[in-house]
Design goal:
2 helices, 17% helix
Length: 133
């Protein structure tokens, strides 16, 4: 099975958490699902550099990267995903969507109302149990 390693950002602004909706995909299990933004590392990058670059490319947002939150191991039918998740902050309330269909700023208690990609669900459960979110 193909293995993919990515990073993701739990971006906070004014006490809310950013969720973004994926576009249509060839796999139903991720097509138009909600996720925490991020992406694949490029040669020579560390995880923090990848998050900063991916968020700039996907959302045209400047972020500051905080502590690592959780690493998720998730197997989809066609690949295995390792996702390193970091807490991030921004001063921008309006991301510019270049790859996603929509975005929402949500309270922690509202996260479960969305249809999330499978790999992102453990992050939501982790956030629910973590004070300060």
């Amino acid at each position: 099975m193909k293995k993919i390693e990515v990073v993701a950002a739990v971006i906070q602004y004014n006490g809310k958490i950013l969720a973004v909706q994926r576009g249509p995909a060839k796999y139903d299990y991720i097509s138009e699902k909600w996720e925490f933004p991020g992406g694949k590392m490029e040669a020579g990058e560390n995880q923090e550099q990848t998050i900063i670059r991916e968020i700039k490319e996907e959302l045209d947002m400047e972020i500051s990267v905080g502590p690592k939150l959780i690493t998720v191991e998730h197997s989809y039918p066609d690949f295995h995903l390792t996702m390193h998740t970091y807490v991030c902050e921004t001063n921008q309330s309006e991301p510019k969507l270049t790859e996603h269909l929509a975005y929402q700023w949500l309270d922690k208690s509202e996260l479960t109302k969305l249809d999330w990609a499978g790999a992102d669900v453990p992050i939501i459960h982790f956030l629910e149990k973590t004070p300060g979110f």
